[in-house]
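Minutes, project check-in

Agenda point 3 was the complex the collaborators sent over. CS summarized: two entities, 227 residues total, and the question is how they sit relative to each other. Sequences were read into the notes so everyone works from the same version.
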Amino acid sequence: GPKVLQIPSHQIIDMGQMVTLNCDPVSNHLYFYWYKQILGQQMEFLVNFYNGKVMEKSKLFKDQFSVERPDGSYFTLKIQPTALEDSAVYFCASSLEGSGNTLYFGEGSRLIVV
Amino acid sequence: GDSVTQTEGPVTLSEGTSLTVNCSYETKQYPTLFWYVQYPGEGPQLLFKVPKANEKGSNRGFEATYNKEATSFHLQKASVQESDSAVYYCALSQNNYAQGLTFGLGTRVSVFP
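CS then shared the predicted structure for the full assembly.
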C-alpha cells in the first residue's frame, strides 16, 4: 500500500534544543497531519496542513511547534525549544482528501528529551 | 467535541476463539468510522472504514457494523490467530471538514497459541 516515510526513526535531544522531524508523505496526497503518542497512551491529533497552510490545530500544538512543507519537499514538524513533556512518538500521516478520507501513517519518530 | 470510547485492554485470547472489541462514539456530526490496527514498531494502518450508517465493513475476517442509533461500531472476529496480536483503534472522521481522525484509546489484543 501507499507508504509514508519518517526520518529520523528515533532521536535523543537535550531539553531546550531544537528538533526537526521529517515526513515524506504519499506522493499524490494533499493533506498532511501530525499525531503525538506518549508511550502506552492514545494517539492525539496535533495539526493538519493543506495547500501550504495550517488548517486545524489542537491544544497540544504549542507555540513552540511549527510545521511547513517548503517547495513540496518534506513535511516537517519543528519543536523549538523542546521540553521534557515533548517526549513521545510522533506520527506523520497523509490523505488524498480531507473529509472522511483514509489517513496513511508513517512508522513514527520516537523523540526522547532529556 | 468528538470522542471515541473502546474496550479497555489488554485483551488476552487463545487462537481459534472469538474477539469483540467494543467501540462507542459521541459526535454531533455525521462521521465516517474506522478501525485501525497497529503492530509493534509500526504506525497505525487501516483495517477498514464505513462511511454510512447501517453498513458493515470487513477485512481479514474482522467486521463491524456502523450502528447510528446505538452510536456503536464494535469490532468482531470469529476465530483469531496469533498474527492478530496488535493494538486496535476505533476512530472517526467528520465528513464536512478536514480535521483528520479522532482516535479511541486503543485496545491491546494478545493471542496465544
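Noted in discussion: Chain A has a mean pLDDT of 93.
Follow-up: revisit at the next meeting once the mutant set is ready.
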